[in-house]
Every structure is written in C-alpha cells, then in structure tokens.
Predict the structure.
Amino acid sequence: MNAMIDDETLDRQLREAALYIDDEGFTERVMARLPAARREPRWLRAMILLGLTLLGSGIAYLLSGGGRFVREGMIQLSDFPIWLLLVFAFGCGLVVGAFAVIVAVRKTPEVRDIARLRF
Amino acid sequence: MELTDADLIARVLVDDDQHAFGELVRRHQSSVRGVLRQLTRTDIALADDLAQETFLRAYKNIRSFRGEARFSTWLYRIAYNCFREDARKRKELVGVDEEQLQAEHDPQTIDPGLRHDLMHALNRLPLNERTAVVLCCQNGLSHDEAARVLDIPLGTVKTNVLRGREKLKRTLAAWGPN
C-alpha cells in the first residue's frame, strides 16, 4: 500500500476533480417549466401605495384638528435655545444612523458572518 | 458591474423578473448538478431531473429565502431534499446498497487517471459520508452550512467528513502505483 495523502491535498484534488458542467440548454429547460410571471404592472402597485399614503395622511390631518399640534410644536421648538436644538438634531441623527447600521448588518450575510469568525 | 446573487433575488422578489432568475440558474447550475451527480452516483439523467426540480422549487419558494445563508447553500438544501424524496419514492434506503457497490467497483479494473479514481472512490462511500465530503471538501461549505443543508447535527457532519476522508485516503493509497 502507498503512503496516504494529507487532508489538504485530498480536498484540493477533489475540488479539481469536480469539472464545470456546461449549461447545454439546462437553464432554458428550467425557464420553460417556470410558472407564468405575475402580470400586475409596477405602476399600479405604486399608485395604490401612493393613494393609501395620501388617504392616511388626510385622515391623520383631520383627526389632529387640522394639524394644530404640528404648528404648536413648531412654535415651542422655536423658543428653545439653539444649542439644545443642535443636540436634539445630533441625537436624532445618531439614533437613525445606529438603526440603519443594525438593519444593514442583519441583512448582509457577508458582514454578519464576520462576527462568527474565530481569530 | 456584475449583479450579485442578492441583487438578482431582489429583482425576482420585487418584479417577478424571470430573466434575473435565469441568471441565478446559469450561475449555480454546474455546482447543483455536480452535487446531485455525486449523490445519484453519476446517474446524469436523474441528477439533471432533480436539478430542474430543485430550481423550480427554489423559484416557487424564493420568498422563504431570508438571506441568512448563502443562496448556494439554500439551493443545496433543496437539492438534497429533492434527492431524498426521490430516493424514498424509489424505495432506495440510504446506505443499504453499500455492499452491492463494493462488488460493482473492483479496484483492479479502475482507470489509473486520478480524477477517475477519485470519483470511483467517492462513489464507494456510504451516502452520509459521501454527501458530507462532497459538500464540505469538494464544494467548500463549512461544517455549519453542511449541517443546515443536511438538517443533521454539526457533530455528525464533522464525523462523516472525517470518516469519509479517511476512507478515501485509504482507498486511493491502495489503488495508487506501487
């Protein structure tokens, strides 16, 4: 019996032995068997979303007494010192930024997997 | 710039873009068909039928792909499920045909080419070890990913890879030129 090869050599030989399989019409055969695509036009979905948004905004405006609380809030804000407004804006930016980073990391496997790496 | 798998999947999800799905099929057909050929012991026609079924199921269930694993890992899992269902239908119990295969593959008659030897040695492994070796050693999946594809514990995958590797090495050493 000959000497046994090591794991690394075996894995490399296995990878090299796995030849690329030419498509040769495979993709076309799969595509021919796919169920028909949804025919709903994109503009219709966009219009529905826009319509619902406008309707929701209109209802909120009416229920809030013609947006009175917004005007009152703006007047109160204008009385605040400028440094307080800057701190408030900066804080809002930090919260939104942190939220965006968390969502991006959760939705990106390549980034998320970095946390699992062992050094 | 070439679109990533994630971009193409997004197009399928948002626009039901079948061309985008076609590109995904083109990208992954070789690896999926390759794995299925190993599982079916190089029955090319059966492997390609199962590969077609794999991609059809992937299209129908693409909304359940949450991006937690690589798209290829998700495809391997569907492919393995298709293979198992087909094997069940054909009443082929996993691993019971090992003795028959031992008889079919006489080492004395094996082609001396390395690739040929490797493929034959691989085909002689029991299904669980062969699948683990094909996924981890040949297709570069981590043990964790293979455990998810095969729906078995991580420790079992590691054991199967270890045993499969050792058997392959012993077989190749026995067949090698003296």
About this structure: Chain A touches chain B at residues 1-5, 7, 10-11, 13-23, 26-27, 29-31, 33-35, 37-38, 42, 107, 109 (CB under 8 Å).
